[in-house]
């Protein structure tokens, strides 16, 4: 795994301020889903960080511990980068409690219902709570890997890269999400390995495929609620149904249903091939080209101010 850093001021790149344009993608609903997803991503990174402190003592495989540390370092870099966008779009500052350092007020109910009881149980030394948390993270990383495939497939693959860059109203947000999704693809297997190492059972069984892939899951509602909040802040009219029917959400759900079953393996077959392909292309092709565009835009903005 590689520890990457965004090589410019991401807040400046996103045009945080009066000239901000949320339309980073090819359609408005997908753009809103993306900025909403930014909130959920930041939240879950800190959840992972909390859980890690309690999970690491159960692992005596040094190679896995090293991979987990790299995974966590990437996640904390992501959280720091997303703060710029999220703090700007949130109607009120993030708050903290005894377990989580940054909870945006409109996600408070999700925190109280789905995460705080687990975190409290972990802090109290309950093995069942740690198991719930690690399986939750492993499921998230698995599903997010597939979401990331769709992101690059729809926006970057082939001629889509030039088309996306030309039509994007905010290549800073585009860069932030692409950087994040590339690293999600790279490290997604670590959470699964951690979970399966400690509990000696597969992440994906028939019951979990049904509840996490086919049934409506609260994580999807969290990201959509965040997207709806962003729309309200930006004065854009939409609703949960329109957001959930956006191209990105529609393609992602279909691909998750196609790929994730009881035999789903992030380190085998075409899934592994895609992981390697997208990470390599981000590092060698798409990131340098997108970075050049972002730096040029920053230079133009700076010159206009001067």
Automatic annotation (TrEMBL):
The keyword Hydrolase applies. This is Metal-dependent hydrolase. It comes from Metapseudomonas boanensis. It comes from the Bacteria. Keywords: Hydrolase. InterPro entries: UCP07580 (IPR016516). Pfam families: Metal_hydrol (PF10118). GO terms for molecular function: hydrolase activity.
């Amino acid at each position: 795994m590689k520890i990457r850093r965004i090589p410019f001021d991401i807040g400046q790149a996103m045009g945080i301020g009066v000239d901000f344009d949320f339309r980073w993608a090819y359609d408005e609903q997908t753009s809103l889903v993306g900025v909403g997803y930014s909130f959920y991503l930041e939240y879950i990174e800190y959840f992972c960080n909390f859980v890690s402190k309690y999970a690491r003592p159960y692992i005596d495989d040094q190679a896995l511990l090293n991979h987990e540390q790299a995974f966590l370092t990437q996640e904390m870099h992501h959280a720091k980068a997303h703060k710029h966008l999220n703090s700007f779009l949130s109607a009120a500052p993030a708050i903290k409690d005894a377990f989580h350092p940054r909870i945006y007020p409109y996600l408070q109910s999700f925190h109280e219902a789905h995460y705080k009881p687990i975190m409290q149980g972990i802090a109290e030394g309950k093995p069942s709570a740690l198991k719930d948390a690690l399986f939750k993270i492993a499921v998230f990383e698995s599903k997010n890997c597939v979401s990331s495939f769709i992101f690059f497939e729809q926006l970057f693959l082939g001629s889509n890269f030039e088309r996306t860059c030309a039509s994007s109203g905010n290549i800073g947000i585009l860069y932030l999400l692409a950087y994040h999704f590339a690293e999600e693809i790279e490290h997604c297997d670590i959470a699964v390995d951690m979970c399966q190492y400690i509990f000696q059972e597969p992440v994906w069984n028939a019951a979990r495929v049904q509840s996490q892939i086919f049934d409506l899951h609260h994580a999807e509602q969290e990201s959509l609620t965040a997207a709806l909040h962003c729309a309200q802040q930006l004065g854009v009219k939409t609703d949960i149904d329109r957001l959930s029917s956006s191209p990105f959400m529609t393609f992602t759900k279909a691909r998750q249903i196609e790929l994730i079953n009881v035999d789903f393996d992030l380190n085998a077959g075409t899934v592994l091939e895609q992981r390697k392909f997208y990470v390599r292309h981000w590092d060698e092709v798409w990131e340098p080209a997108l970075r050049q565009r972002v730096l040029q835009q920053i230079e133009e903005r700076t010159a206009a101010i001067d």
